[in-house]
């Protein structure tokens, strides 16, 4: 087992380094995932990745997301709350509708179709899917992965044709370490994590640090943690390696029909975000279309923020909208869908 873990870790690290060298997006997450998937699928090499590393990766990912939740982001979210709610509910409602369409097209389970269609993030939605017996984790992972690929490639390309502001206007966050606040955050985070695990709340490893840092940084006004790149990369490797080994039998699962259904699902979702952006721009002419397009795009917070910085979008606004949708999906939409599906599974004797 130790040897298998060493081989797995070496493959994961090397794949991440290669993906970064060639300029791939999310290299330390997708590199290990694709490499271990291929090795596991086409070779007899024994591979092993302990679940504790997956948990560590989720905690670090939660810290990374939570550290971006500053007081300014919270104030901005309060002002734009009605528009955030309109955009988020619209996107989530369409995602659920596309999930039902996907179910009819490929005859997957309701849990798989809905959890794969909701744009709540690759790692987050897979963690939630793990708690639902009727969910096919491999298909959910494929749906979320292909969405990330399509959004990160299509959305930045489309922004080339849009007018933005001068690049480099992003306000710099000042990191101010406070031992007292750090200890307070650790205690609150541990208590919150223990409480969430006790009641069976999904993705507690991810949500506890997010909520803790969001609360502490909003109250203090400080940026409590400034995670170095190598630590963020390590978290992605921990999660990516676990995902790659989970996707056993993907060669048998990814049929032409399934692949076509996933691509159609995401094209319709991206097209709908364009429509929502047009509606909000007409509603609020003081904003520009680019801001709302990147705010509605079903990608990750970091990827959309980087795109916004490069093309002249309002990074604070876009991050606020993306954060609101992330919390709405992880705290409301995904748990509600998971609860309903579990009830339906229980009735059907799954």
If you had to describe this structure to a student in words, what would you say it looks like?
This protein has 350 residues and is an all-alpha fold. It contains 16 helices and no strands. It has helices at residues 2-21, 27-42, 51-67, 71-79, 81-106, 110-117, 122-129, 137-159, 179-198, 204-220, 229-246, 250-253, 256-283, 289-296, 301-311, 315-348. The longest helix is centred in the last third of the chain and has 34 residues, at 315-348. The chain is globular, with a radius of gyration of 20 Å.
Helix/strand layout:
Elements: H1 2-21, H2 27-42, H3 51-67, H4 71-79, H5 81-106, H6 110-117, H7 122-129, H8 137-159, H9 179-198, H10 204-220, H11 229-246, H12 250-253, H13 256-283, H14 289-296, H15 301-311, H16 315-348
Helix pairs in contact: 1-2, 2-11, 3-10, 3-11, 4-16, 5-6, 5-13, 5-16, 6-7, 6-8, 6-16, 7-8, 7-16, 8-13, 9-10, 13-14, 14-15, 14-16, 15-16
Counting DSSP H or I runs of 4 or more residues, the number of helices is 16
Distance between the termini: 33 Å
Largest sheet: none
What's the total count of β strands?
0
User: Which descriptor suits the 3D outline?
Assistant: globular
Based on helices, strands and strand pairing, what is the structural class?
A: mainly alpha
Main attributes?
single chain, 350 residues, 16 helices
Q: What can be said about this structure in brief?
A:
The protein is mostly helical and 350 residues long. The protein contains 16 helices and no strands.
């Amino acid at each position: 087992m130790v040897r298998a873990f060493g081989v797995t870790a070496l493959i994961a690290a090397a794949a991440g380094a290669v993906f970064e060298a060639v300029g791939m997006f999310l290299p330390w997450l997708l590199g290990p995932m694709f490499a271990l998937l291929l090795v596991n699928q086409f070779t007899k090499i024994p591979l092993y990745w302990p679940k504790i590393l997956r948990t560590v990766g989720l905690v670090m990912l939660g810290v990374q997301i939570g550290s971006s939740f500053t007081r300014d982001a919270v104030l901005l979210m309060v002002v734009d709350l009605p528009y955030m709610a309109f955009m988020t509910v619209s996107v989530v409602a369409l995602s659920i509708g596309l999930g039902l369409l996907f179910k009819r097209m490929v005859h997957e389970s309701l849990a798989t179709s809905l959890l794969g269609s909701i744009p709540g993030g690759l790692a987050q939605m897979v963690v939630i899917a793990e708690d639902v017996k009727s969910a096919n984790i491999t298909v959910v992972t494929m749906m979320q992965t292909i969405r990330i690929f399509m959004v990160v490639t299509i959305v930045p390309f489309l922004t080339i044709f849009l007018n933005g502001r001068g690049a480099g206007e992003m306000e710099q966050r000042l990191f101010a370490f406070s031992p007292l606040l750090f200890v307070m955050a650790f205690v609150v985070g541990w208590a919150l994590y223990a409480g969430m695990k006790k009641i069976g709340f999904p993705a507690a490893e991810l949500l506890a640090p997010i909520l803790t840092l969001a609360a502490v940084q909003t109250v203090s006004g400080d940026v409590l943690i400034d995670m170095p790149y190598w630590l963020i990369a390590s978290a992605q490797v921990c999660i990516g390696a676990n995902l790659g080994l989970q996707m056993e039998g993907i060669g048998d699962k990814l049929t032409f029909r399934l692949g076509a259904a996933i691509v159609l699902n995401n094209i319709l979702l991206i097209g709908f975000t364009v429509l929502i952006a047009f509606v909000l721009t007409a509603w609020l002419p003081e904003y520009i279309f680019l801001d709302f397009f990147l705010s509605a795009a079903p990608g990750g917070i970091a990827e959309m923020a980087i795109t916004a910085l490069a093309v002249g979008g309002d990074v604070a606004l876009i991050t606020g909208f993306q954060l609101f949708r992330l919390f709405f999906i992880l705290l409301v939409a995904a748990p509600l869908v998971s609860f309903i599906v579990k009830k339906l599974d229980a009735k059907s004797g799954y």
